[in-house]
Amino acid sequence: MSAAKSKLDLEFKEAYKRASKTELRFPPDVRLHFYAYYKRATEDNSIHQEESLDSRLIGAFKMNAMFQIRGLSRDDAKRKYIELVNKYITE
């Protein structure tokens, strides 16, 4: 693993910790960006589906967010995630 790659991975982990601990609430579009970049960065393409109509609608938005970033590399998704954290979570 290159030094640049391990630095990116470390920055991503730190950004994830900051995002996980924040009590800030974000608009749905920002949350979807966090969600999609995280899922792409971690290569987790699963989307948990619930049975209620509201949950299916949320699932559709999540799938759309994932679809929009489908061409993004894992490293680019990590960078985008880090940028979001730095933009919205300043604590």
Summarize this, please?
The chain is mainly alpha-helical and 91 residues long.
Written description of the protein model:
The chain has helices at residues 3-21, 28-41, 53-68, 74-88. The protein has a single domain, classed as Acyl-CoA Binding Protein, CATH 1.20.80.10. The model has no long low-confidence stretch (mean pLDDT 89). 70% of the residues lie in helices and 0% in strands.
Secondary-structure map:
Layout: H1 3-21, H2 28-41, H3 53-68, H4 74-88
Task: Work out the helicity level.
Answer: over 70%
**Radius of gyration from the CA trace?**
14 Å
According to DSSP, the number of beta strands is: 0
Mean pLDDT over the residues:
89
CATH topology annotation: Acyl-CoA Binding Protein
Q: Report the CATH C-level class.
A: Mainly Alpha
The CATH architecture can be given as Up-down Bundle
Number of domains: 1
Beta-strand share of residues: under 5%
* Unreliable residue runs: none
* Approximate shape: globular
